[in-house]
TrEMBL record:
Single GO MF descriptor: phosphatidylcholine lysophospholipase activity
InterPro entries: Ester_Hydrolysis_Enzymes (IPR051532), SGNH_hydro (IPR013830), SGNH_hydro_sf (IPR036514)
Protein's name according to its UniProt entry: GDSL-like Lipase/Acylhydrolase
CDD domains, alphabetized: SGNH_hydrolase_like_2
Organism: Microbacterium hydrocarbonoxydans
Origin: domain of life: Bacteria
Annotated ranges, domain SGNH hydrolase-type esterase: 5-186
Keyword field: Hydrolase
Keyword Hydrolase among UniProt keywords: yes
Length: 201
């Protein structure tokens, strides 16, 4: 099985982009050994800082040639973040208008099983709590796309919010976004749970 992950820094996780076999040191690297042992080939196409529009710019040249049979898409937090650090917002409507055609294209070309990852954010400062309103729109889009494409959904915002009720942010994602090794394990476990649900359909 050909397994591809595409997304932003949480997927990238420091991979060597000059090496197609490099998986970084995040959740993809935790999932890969079992996938490879089961006979899969695994590609990590994460790029730090990517938004939905960035995925669109490399969908044809980087994603489609991998001909994925199982595709995980994880994007959205930078579409929120750029509104607040660069005054460059992406509306939920634009976010969906970019992502939906990408999924349509890959389904038409390769009919992969899809796993969509919900973006998460843990506010570090009181001011950042207001950012969640923007993220909520992107989360709703990912959930709607998961329903419309019969994709497995990984509810990461719920996972991390729940974990943050019992652990300090420093153990999960010190800046609210980039996971610690423990945070990466949470993502990998949530992916496995979603993939298992998808397998049972």
């Amino acid at each position: 099985m050909r397994v591809t992950f595409i997304g932003d820094s949480i997927t990238d996780a420091g991979r060597d982009r000059s090496d197609p076999d490099s998986l970084g040191d995040g959740y993809v690297s935790l999932l890969a050994p079992d996938l490879i042992a089961a006979g899969a080939t695994v590609r990590n196409l994460g790029i730090a800082g990517d938004r939905a529009a960035d995925l669109a710019s490399r969908w044809e040249s980087e994603l489609l040639p991998t001909a994925p049979e199982l595709l995980t898409v994880y994007v959205g937090v930078n579409d929120m973040w750029r509104r607040f650090d660069s005054d460059d917002p992406t509306t939920a409507e634009d976010f969906e208008a970019t992502l939906r055609p990408l999924l349509e294209r890959v389904v038409a070309a390769h009919a992969p099983r899809l796993i969509l990852m919900e973006p998460y954010f843990l506010p570090v400062t009181p001011a950042q709590a207001g950012w969640l309103d923007d993220l909520d729109g992107k989360r709703a889009v990912v959930r709607r796309l998961a329903r419309d494409f019969d994709a497995a959904l990984v509810p990461l915002h719920e996972v991390f919010t729940g974990a943050a009720s019992a652990r300090p942010l420093s153990e999960l994602a010190p800046d609210g976004v980039h996971p610690t090794p423990y945070g990466s394990r949470l993502i990998a476990d949530a992916w496995l749970a979603a993939a298992s649900i998808s397998d049972s359909r």
